[in-house]
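Exercise 7.
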Amino acid sequence: MFASVLLAVGLASGAQGLPPEPTVTIALDSSRKEVVITAGPFDLPNMPPMEDPAMMDFGMAHDIPIQQFDWPMDSWFRGFHLAMVDGHGRPVPRRVLHHMIMVNFSRRMLLYEGPERVMGAGTETDDVVVPKSIGVPMKAGMRLGMYVAWHNSTGKDLHDVYMKLTMLWTPKNLNPQPVNAMPIYMDVNLTVGGHNTFDVPPGRSEKAHEFTMPVSGRLLGVGGHLHDYGVAVRLEDAETGKVLAAVKATRDSAGKLVKVGRKLFGVAGAGLKLKANHRYRVVGEYDNPTNVTEKRGAMAHMSGIFAPDDMTKWPAIDPHNPDYLRDLVSLQVRGTDEDPAEPHGGQDMGGAGRVQGPHDMQGGNGGETAQAGEDHSGH
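Solution. The predicted structure, written as tokens, is:
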């Protein structure tokens, strides 16, 4: 039976005089260990097909303002189910959702000064559930936010669309308690509060970013995100040059991206050890077979699950940090009249359809490489 937590929050639609305004309703089902989030109704005008990932940067999607709510209890988040329906409960094609990102304003990301991205889903993202032995630790009252970019290319306008997100959780009294498994995101070209796309010249090319780990821990698994002509994303030890992990792209004969693999080090195993105060490098590889430079046509990042040795050493939010403030502003103006007609990719911080955490870890055994099934849908 449902617990007593049930609330609705009115949202500013970003446009005046369009009743009814969307709301987000949160229901806690203690018996099923689920938090059910229902958002809507949304009116989605038909839009042209989005064949080029850069089209997201030129207004070829319909954003809505961020929708905020409080997480209801101490627990571990361990997966989700996502569905879209109309006002009569009939299924709406999953492809109308370009991406959805869940933000935790109560904790920062490991490597970047910005609110944590707990999870994300996109057109190609499957539902995700990880074992009860791991999970993202959550505290009652954590302030979460959810933002959505729609792209309805079904050929007709859609009215009264609702998004239903079911988040699975593990209770605090589970014995033994789950391993804290935190989202980790490593981008080769991140600008906090800005865009993370870059040019791809003809032929083979690489783009890299070095970072220093703030805490020690184990990388349990990673997935990758690339665009057309992408070859692989790899993680290196920047001090020795050793390749620690790589996820490779599957491409068609023209170099177009089909999907990107993922690397699982074993959800219950030792994982890949990363050391605090040690330098690492994330590298994106591209091979453009044309004679034309693809302007802002590429992204490259790794995202996955990281189990810190000591959660008390997780970097704290610095509310005065310029990058943190820039990211906060970019989140607050999404889908409003103040949202600049500028890129959305970097503001997603994890690309449009990639889950920074459990999404990349579903299934598989230690040491195996699996295909994530990430279609080229333009993130």
